Structure to design on (261 residues):
């Protein structure tokens, strides 16, 4: 048994035991139906519908018709190899992410990581390293934890893949993006990330985030990793904002879904 396999097995056993003890000491309530004993009960979990149908083979957004790529990826291909999300940012999934992000429901990271593990196992992606989208220092100080790292660390341990929360950093604080249109979001994030070449050269990296809105964060983080010598970048999130027409990136700028992020 390799060191990474043994370490990950021990880590998973420890986390599972830890959260079982926490549930016993402080019984949780389902973030969607308020039922005692679960952070997200089985019934509410089953209500979450995975994204399916015809998805853009590059950015993973649902598309109409039979083309393989959405209009935006055809016109301006993103720097990553492929991006996928488990579900749309609505209903119980939205509430679960909200609980993880704003209500300190840390156990939710493990619950939301599991469907992502299943997606990776089916994807055929060859991944050497898993990284979460980093928070800025200011956000880290106020929140106290990175919600994406809670998901990515459990996911990496389950798949026996190396995990690093330090090799890519936000080098400057970016303004809050809620009220920005897509162009402003991209400009706001330009050069916001720095990736350390020492751990990245020639490696295939998987970036994890909780929610994708316009994709600006993933694209800029992917660029930083590629500039640092990474080989291929894959992006995966729990949820994403979906619009019912193909011009999704621009359309999202005025979509009310952004207001809840
Ligand atoms: Zn429930
Ligand atoms: Zn696309």
């Amino acid at each position: 048994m390799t060191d990474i396999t043994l370490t990950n097995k021990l880590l998973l056993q420890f986390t599972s035991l830890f959260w079982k003890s926490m549930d016993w000491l402080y019984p949780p309530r389902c973030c969607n139906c308020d039922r005692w004993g679960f952070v997200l009960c089985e019934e509410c979990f089953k209500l979450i519908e995975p994204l399916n149908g015809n998805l853009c083979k590059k950015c993973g957004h649902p598309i109409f018709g039979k083309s393989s790529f959405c209009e935006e990826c055809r016109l301006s291909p993103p720097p990553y190899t492929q991006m996928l999300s488990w579900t749309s940012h609505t209903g119980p999934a939205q509430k679960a992410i909200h609980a993880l992000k704003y209500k300190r429901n840390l156990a939710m990271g493990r619950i939301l990581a599991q469907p992502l593990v299943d997606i990776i196992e089916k994807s055929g992606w060859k991944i050497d390293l898993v990284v979460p989208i980093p928070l800025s220092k200011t956000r880290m100080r106020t929140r106290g934890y990175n919600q994406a790292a809670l998901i990515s660390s459990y996911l990496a341990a389950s798949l026996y893949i190396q995990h690093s929360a330090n090799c890519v950093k936000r080098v400057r604080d970016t303004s809050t993006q809620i009220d920005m249109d897509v162009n402003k979001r991209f400009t706001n994030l330009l050069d916001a990330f720095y990736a350390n070449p020492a751990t990245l050269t020639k490696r295939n990296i998987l970036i994890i985030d909780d929610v994708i809105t316009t994709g600006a964060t993933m694209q800029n983080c992917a660029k930083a990793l590629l500039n640092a010598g990474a080989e291929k970048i894959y992006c995966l999130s729990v949820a994403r904002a979906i619009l019912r027409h193909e011009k999704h990136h621009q359309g999202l700028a005025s979509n009310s879904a952004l207001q809840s992020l």
In short: The chain has one domain: 3-172+180-260.
